[in-house]
Design goal:
Helix content of chain B: 55-70%
Largest sheet of chain A: none
Largest sheet of chain B: none
Largest interface: A-B, 33 and 39 residues
Oligomer: heterodimer
Helix content of chain A: 55-70%
CATH topology of chain B: Fumarate Reductase Cytochrome B subunit
Distance between the termini of chain A: 60 Å
Structural class of chain B: mainly alpha
Structural class of chain A: mainly alpha
Strand content of chain A: under 5%
Number of strands of chain A: 0
CATH superfamily of chain B: Transmembrane di-heme cytochromes, Chain C
CATH class of chain B: Mainly Alpha
Number of strands of chain B: 0
Strand content of chain B: under 5%
Distance between the termini of chain B: 58 Å
Number of helices of chain B: 12
Shape of chain A: elongated
Number of domains of chain B: 1
Chain lengths: ~110, ~240
């Protein structure tokens, strides 16, 4: 009887610990967001910097605009839109992939193509 | 090169962690109890034991009864651990489940505090360990090691969130690669590599350390026994 309970507990624990493996092997674990990248134009910073730190640029631009009343053209959402035309094909892909929810689009319009 | 090294290191750590814990639980479960020793006042039926266990595991009731200051630090640290682990689920499952998304939105709104909530209790418990004479006297290297390890993990995590950010999509690709057995290259951010290394060390260390209290608590005879020695005779299995 005790052994049976022990086996059950061990199995349950094992199932919990190994669940991410099971889920990802079964679902194939879609491993990268498939962005639609613009073919022309050059970003305000290099790709590596933008991937990790684009929010800093936007936040700095926000503080400048709201606190100091200085509108910067370079790092504005509008400037992003000139190359990255649709939000659902660019911004949303990574944000959904890693599970972050930026507040930008609660006020700012960024076309989703719908 | 680094990716291959870390892929092997990660699988090694996970195997040690999972099978180490399972072996330990198995050992705890099959070792017989020679004596009936529930800590009185103890519940006299099975439901009571379950309630006692929940109070002990979720709210650390015994610790609350014995030392309020340690209880405060312990509860804060474990709650923070729970939230931190829950918010890391988003790197292991694609697409991110809705409840985790809600948690994430909430955590974003309170910003820096969750990282601090994790770091501060560790510092508090470390100071307690050094400050209180009796505790310092019984502390060995392992007691400090766990605290320092968790502290460094938290510190590297906060650094990644606010100072030296990695490419999060690459991080998730790497983690999904590991968990679906199609390894992807490890992100090059040094802080991420540090964070990841420390986690793997923690995973390897876990089954052999005092951290096994996480599963051991369920098997402690003073907490999980029913107080019915007169109603039901307890026979020593080897007596």
């Amino acid at each position: 009887m005790n052994k049976l309970i022990a086996i059950l507990i061990v199995l349950m624990f094992g199932a919990v610990l190994l669940s991410p493996f099971v889920v990802n092997v079964i679902s194939g674990g879609k491993a990268t967001p498939d962005l639609v990248l613009p073919t022309t134009g050059k970003c305000v910073k290099d790709t590596e910097y933008m991937r990790a730190n684009h929010m800093d640029l936007l936040k700095k631009a926000r503080v400048k605009a709201v606190r100091d009343g200085v509108r910067t053209k370079d790092s504005s959402l509008k400037n992003c839109q000139t190359c990255h035309v649709r939000r659902d094909e660019f911004c949303d892909k990574c944000h959904h992939f890693v599970g972050v929810k930026p507040e930008c689009f609660e006020c700012h319009y960024f076309p989703t193509g719908k | 090169m680094l990716s291959t090294l870390y892929t092997f290191f990660a699988y090694f750590a996970i195997v040690i962690f999972v099978f180490g814990i399972l072996c330990k639980i198995w050992k705890y479960a099959i070792i017989p109890n020679p004596l009936k020793i529930p800590l009185t006042p103890a519940p006299t039926n099975a439901i009571g034991v379950v309630i006692r266990m929940i109070l002990d595991v979720a709210f650390f009731k015994s610790l609350f009864n014995s030392n309020k200051f340690t209880w405060l630090g312990g509860v804060a640290l474990h709650l923070a651990l729970l939230v931190v682990v829950a918010s890391h689920i988003r790197f292991f499952i694609s697409p991110v489940p809705e409840p985790i998304m809600l948690l994430q939105t909430f955590l974003q709104s309170i910003g820096m505090f969750i990282g601090l909530l994790f770091i501060m209790p560790i510092v508090y418990l470390f100071i307690r360990r050094v400050w209180v004479d009796r505790t310092r006297f019984i502390s060995i290297f392992a007691d400090y090691f766990v605290l320092i390890l968790l502290f460094l993990i938290g510190l590297s995590g906060i650094t990644m969130k606010y100072l030296i950010r990695p490419d999060l999509a690459a991080v998730k690709t790497f983690i999904l690669g590991l968990t679906s057995f199609c390894p992807a290259p490890i992100p090059t951010n040094p802080i991420f590599i540090t964070h990841f290394t420390l986690i793997l060390i923690l995973l390897i260390y876990f089954p052999f350390s005092k951290l096994m209290h996480s599963s051991g608590i369920f098997f402690s005879p003073t907490r999980n026994q029913i107080d019915n020695p007169r109603e039901k005779r307890h026979v020593n299995p080897w007596g």
